[in-house]
From TrEMBL:
InterPro entries, per database record: Kinase-like_dom_sf, LRK10/LRL21-25-like, Prot_kinase_dom, Ser/Thr_kinase_AS
Enzyme nomenclature, EC number: 2.7.11.1
PROSITE patterns assigned: PROTEIN_KINASE_DOM, PROTEIN_KINASE_ST
Alphabetized GO MF terms: ATP binding; protein serine/threonine kinase activity
Residue ranges constituting the Protein kinase domain according to the UniProt record: 1-178
Protein name: non-specific serine/threonine protein kinase
Coiled-coil portions: none
Biological source species: Quercus suber (Cork oak)
Main localization, broad class: membrane
Reaction equation(s) it catalyzes: L-threonyl-[protein] + ATP = O-phospho-L-threonyl-[protein] + ADP + H(+); L-seryl-[protein] + ATP = O-phospho-L-seryl-[protein] + ADP + H(+)
Gene: LRK10_14
Amino acid sequence: MFLFLFFLGWEKLQDITIGIAKGIEYLHQGCDQRILHFDIKPHNILLDQNFNPKISDFGLAKLCAKDQSAVSITTARGTIGYIAPEVFSRNFGNVSYKSDIYSFGILLLEMVGGRKNKKEDLRVYVEDNGDAKIAKKLAIVGLWCIQWHPMDRPSMKVVIQMLEREGDNLTMPPNPFSSTSPTRINASTLARHLNLDLEVIPELE
């Protein structure tokens, strides 16, 4: 079953997003080598009979060492609408595991809004205050994940911690499409504010 077939309710949607995030975290940190998927999108997220998400289609994936902070690719790879800016142009930063996090952020925002980048929309209802809190939390996490510069995006470990806790204390991210935002907050600052254990992974400037 493909993700986005129908709306399942906000609590179930939250569970699915956490499952997807844990799957991506496993690819990035749980294997002997880091696996960069490069094509995180709805059609590559399958749900089993219990609505547990499974990441599929590794045709564009790339292996790299866990301590490798940037990877080299000769051409852009992925699906339009989900590709991180740095995959198109190195002016935005280095291509790394953060490119998958950008794609996850787009996916997350589409789940919250009930729409795809293309074609049909899906009716999504917020029925009570609990639903509104979950929707707001998912939206904030999604906006953190699509920050324009890779170094400003949280690691998937931090994303999971954000998704699993109450959303009241989450900091709103700066405008992800403004490269000169005067209130720019990076992922390290976010983790300190939330009192999260940020996994230290070196990045190239």
